[in-house]
Design a protein that fits this description.
Length: about 290
């Protein structure tokens, strides 16, 4: 399949990229790794008149920690996340999500910003970024703004990113002592397949193992990545144990909204939400104890 015709642009820096997006607006698409966009263009799902390549902009590939916040450039590849000790040590659930995404070839090309910007309900990176309380930094020729990851997605393929904006980085608060997170995805195959269900959990513990903060984000079971408010409410203020985690799994199951498709029935997906909630809470609890 051939790509449709388009004008190709390669800005030298972020400022020039923002100017181009301001000029071309909805007629343009940003190109980073291209693992999602180019496939959609070949299948004629999208036909932008302009492609603005940001793959060589160094400003989008920075990573560091400052004042208790990890800054991850949107141009960072998924493979970079896996190989970075800062991510492994401070944001283990994000590292696990990156390791679960696609194949090595895909991970070497796919960028963090692209995985988020595509707004796929089955994407691997959003659940862990959301449970960590991350923010997306969006920049345009008119200035910069920040959007919480829990508010970033509007629906399938839809975000709060304006046509003239570029995702520049993600700011993730470093979890405090006594906090832990876990991420697991379930697919028919290990790679080259869309997730059936994916889920991330995050908890913060008091010294007596009472949970003071809890976040659970479910993927593939709604038009966007969904929080389980029922499970979170059940967890907060209770002491962490297997019985509590099982009850939280049942609550998350009730909060999910899956549909029947060729990957599984809605009932199967609901059951898997319950199972993955339990397993990710166990991972989060183990890490929280280790970090206490």
């Amino acid at each position: 399949m051939l790509l449709p015709k388009f004008d190709f642009h390669q800005p030298a820096g972020l400022s020039e990229a923002c100017q181009m997006m301001s000029e071309y607006g909805p007629k343009a698409k940003l190109l980073a790794g291209g693992t999602d966009l180019l496939v959609n263009m070949k299948h004629k799902r999208v036909s932008p008149a302009h492609l603005v390549s940001i793959s060589r902009i160094g400003e989008l590939k920075k990573l560091g920690k400052e004042n208790g916040v990890v800054h991850i450039g949107a141009g960072f590849t998924v493979a970079d996340l896996i190989d970075t000790e800062l991510i492994k040590n401070d944001l283990s659930a994000l590292s696990a999500a990156a390791s679960s995404l696609g194949s090595p070839l895909i991970r070497n090309l796919a960028t963090v910003g692209g995985n988020i910007g595509s707004a796929r309900p089955a994407a691997d990176l959003p659940p862990s970024l959301m449970v960590y309380g991350a923010q997306a930094v969006l920049e345009s020729a008119g200035g910069q703004r920040k959007v919480s990851m829990t508010e970033f997605f509007k629906g399938v393929g839809l975000t709060h990113l304006h046509p003239d904006e570029v995702i520049t980085e993600f700011q993730v608060p470093v979890p405090p002592a006594g906090a832990g997170a876990g991420y697991i995805n379930l697919g028919v195959r290990q790679c080259h397949d869309c997730n059936v269900v994916n889920l991330a959990s995050y908890i913060e513990l008091e010294k007596d193992h009472t949970i003071k903060t809890a976040r659970i984000i479910m993927g593939c079971v709604g038009p966007t990545h969904l929080p389980s408010r029922g499970a979170e409410k059940m967890l907060i203020g209770a002491k962490a144990d297997d019985t509590l985690f099982k009850a939280a799994g049942e609550a998350a199951k009730q909060d999910s909204m899956p549909i029947d498709d060729f990957r599984g029935t809605a009932e199967y997906k609901r059951n898997m939400v319950a199972a993955l909630t339990i397993r990710t809470l166990e991972l989060a609890f183990q890490e929280a104890q280790a970090r206490a």
